[in-house]
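Dock thymidine-5'-diphosphate; give full complex structure.
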Amino acid sequence: MQNLLVTGGCGFIGANFIRLLFSNTDFDGRIVNVDKLTYAGNPENLTDIEDIYRDRYFFVMADICDPEAIADVFAKYKIDTVCNFAAESHVDRSIVEPDAFIKTNIHGTFILLETAREHRDQLILFHHVSTDEVYGSLGAEGYFTEDTPYKPNSPYSASKASSDHLVRAYSKTYGLPVTISNCSNNYGPYQFPEKLIPLMILNALEEKSLPVYGKGRNIRDWLYVTDHCKAVWRIMQSGRRGETYNIGGRCERANLDTVNMICDLLDDMQPRPDQRSRRELISFVKDRPGHDFRYAIDCSKLENELGWIPEESFESGLRKTIQWYLDNKEWVERVKSGDYLAWVKQHYEHI
Ligand code: NAD
Ligand code: TYD
């Protein structure tokens, strides 16, 4: 793997993945990051990487739905490996405006697969990054395994399910070398503050209310983003072609417990002037329609076959995450105000 196309590398997980590959693995090839820079994409996440690895890191602002742009990238950079992170990723947005989810997550993946098929001779691997939400919702018992039938409930998860099926079909029909990973909820640095954990951290710091959907009893299985990225890299290097691997943290928490924990850690790391608990900011709001009750991943296939285990505990990962948001207030300001688009224009005069 010498010429790696990473799509969506300016988003939360993609940026962490690129940072990991350059800083903490034996990867010695080139990375081409193709990102459309939607509201969730921020090239500022990789400025230091761009400076240090001038001859190994390349950013191309393009839409994965644009066949010509993607064909150009494959030809120009002799792409031999693809890791597809690019997606519309937020469930609440998919409920309000599903259109972009269908376009990017389904059609975009199709364009990438078609282009990879056209460049079959040079292709080593097409890795597709997906979510455990494709499996639907669990009751109080049981776990998602790789054999759990797909039962997506939101436009987001339905679009990701569809893209997974396309990737599988390209493996079965055309013999494309693929792997798929389905991961549980991630948290960590660079996450756009619309998702539960960064939203709660920033709202709490700004003394805003902390909106918990329903009664806060829905359960998510949390994984620190670097652990996810390490799992993806392990699968890309050693996973069996044509296979799916579940990735999870074995870290189930009810949402209310997660929000309480964030409040308590913040009170410890940066107490309010009046020393009162931030838990008093919690407010219970109307539930999300079609809200999946519980996700829980059985990742024993990944553990047993490839020897991966998560390194971060929920508390250590949350502390790191909170510290990162405390240390990066300018990033937060720019992302929340959308000012980074001005920053992009300044730094990328050529696009
Ligand atoms: P994100 O929303 O933070 O980032 C998505 C990135 O994709 C952004 O940089 C955006 O600009 C880019 N993008 C969107 N549409 C594009 C298009 N048409 N062409 C090119 N680039 C485009 O998302 P994330 O949380 O980093 O998730 C990355 C991947 O991981 C997604 O495929 C998501 O489904 C999957 N995933 C996420 C989680 C999670 O908890 N965040 C868990 C499991 C799987
Ligand atoms: P989210 O981060 O949107 O991830 P996903 O929906 O993909 O699991 O939400 C995580 C959980 O937190 C989910 O059960 C919905 C809930 N939630 C809230 O209670 N309040 C919020 O403001 C948000 C964004 C999410």
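Observed: The CA atoms of residues 3 and 287 lie 45 Å apart.
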